[in-house]
Amino acid sequence: MKNESRIRQLRSTRYRRLAALHGGPLGVALIGRPELAPSFERAMRHCPGHPDLLCAGAGGVPRVCFVGKMEQLAASSARGGESRRAWERRFIEREVLPCLEVFEREFPRELEPMLRYTRDEIEADLAYLKQRSRAVGEP
Question: What DSSP character marks residue 83?
Answer without folding.
Answer: H
